[in-house]
Design goal:
Layout lengths: L2 H22 L5 H25 L5 H27 L3 H27 L6
Helix pairs in contact: 1-2, 1-4, 2-3, 2-4, 3-4
């Protein structure tokens, strides 16, 4: 399986797991949790794709570092400025957002391991 396909499969799995989690929580928390998860997916999916595409190149570390900086900045701006301005509950929104970011960072790691392991040589 190609790294791109492995990453897209992981994104789909995280999205499906997130949807299941949204359905499992109290109905009052669902919109905020779902909103945070969607923001996380919209942020992380392209950044992760960019990182996966750069694996094995000299540009990987700067790309990965820039991606991490963007992720931290967006979480900080959301928590300190956007959510208070909109009056959204920070706990479910940030929890959903950070949960998705972490899950998709794990997908990046699994993708990298698959790309650099010897699984295709067996």
């Amino acid at each position: 399986m190609t790294p791109g396909r492995r990453y897209l499969l992981g994104v789909a799995a995280v999205g499906a797991g997130g949807a299941g989690l949204v359905l499992a929580v109290d109905q009052a928390l669902r919109p905020a949790l779902a909103g945070g998860m969607v923001i996380g997916l919209l942020l992380q999916a392209p950044l992760g794709w960019w990182a996966v595409r750069s694996m094995g190149t000299e540009g990987f570390m700067p790309i990965w570092g820039l991606g991490m900086l963007v992720r931290f900045t967006v979480v900080g701006v959301m928590g300190l400025a956007v959510l208070p301005a909109l009056g959204w509950p920070p706990g479910p929104v940030l929890g959903g957002m950070v949960g998705v970011l972490v899950a998709l960072l794990l997908v990046e790691g699994v993708t990298a391991m698959g790309q650099h392991s010897r699984e295709d040589e067996r």
